[in-house]
Amino acid sequence: IDAIGGNHKLEMLDLSSNNIGSEGCRALARLLQDPDSSLRVLALDRNVIDDTGSFVLANALRNNTTLEELQLAKTEALLVFGITRVGLNEFYQVVCNTSSILDTFLSNHTLERLEEFESEDWAPSNIRRELDRNCSNDKHGVAIKKILCHHQHLNVESFFEWDLKVLPYAIEWFRRARLCCEDIANLDAKILSSIYQFALAMPMQFVPFAQRAQSKRKLQEADK
Questions:
Q1: What is the residue-averaged pLDDT of the chain?
Q2: DSSP one-letter string for the chain
């Protein structure tokens, strides 16, 4: 693995049946974390990777923007090892971290297949759904869809310090959301809610200029 680490043109790597366990996964993690890596497919079938190894691989994919397919199938002889629902959930946290809007935006939107696991009856449906979303070429649209699906209330309070300068960007963001997320429920309500938050935080910015001037004069007269 160290020998191929500098091969940035490598797009597919098959390490099936190599008795790779947790230590091997740590070596592979360095390869997956290389920002210059071009690896798109990694085959690790019929190895001895368990939940510990899956945690290492999943964490290595947090900032990876090239790997599209990870093969982790096992044979019956290796069922004593293998990845459980706990390990698989770690991959879900990587492709869709819902801790915050920012974490969701920074999730992995590249990984499209965890071969063998999508077809397993015990595999959580949520990871299948997010992997399917990642199949879109519009990765910015994928991030938007994940945010709108998993964050019912879009809190824009952190943008208030920018006053209304950020509002046009927010509206443009929702315009793009409308184009790529037609199936998102209550999209219009989310848009209005965000604009309302701005209006509530900066009411005078939304009052007509003449009315603002009049209100200012009244306040000045009251102070005299």
A1: 79
A2: -TTTTT-TT--EEE-TTS---HHHHHHHHHHHT-TT----EEE-TTS--BHHHHHHHHHHTTT-SS--EEE----GGGTTSB--HHHHHHHHHHH---SSHHHHHTS-----EEETTTT-TTS-HHHHHHHHHTTSS-HHHHHHHHHHHH-SS---GGGGGGGGGGHHHHHHHHHHHHHH-TT-TTHHHHHHHHHHHHHHH-GGGGS-HHHHHHHHHHHHHHH-
- Starting from the edge strand earliest in sequence, which strands make up the sheet with 113-115, in order? 12-14, 41-43, 69-71, 113-115
The residue type found at 214 is: Q
Tens-place pLDDT, residues 183-192? 676 777 777 7
CA 125 → CA 8, 139, 154, distances in Å?
34, 21, 25
156: which 2 tokens?
A: 């824009």
The CA distances from residue 123 to 84, 88, 116, in Å, are: 9, 8, 10
111, 68 Cβ separation under 8 angstroms: yes
Comparing 29-33, 82-86, 87-91, the range with the smallest average pLDDT is 82-86
Reported pTM:
0.76
Say which residues have a Cβ less than 8 Å from residue 117's Cβ, sequence separation at least 6: 72, 83, 88, 123, 127
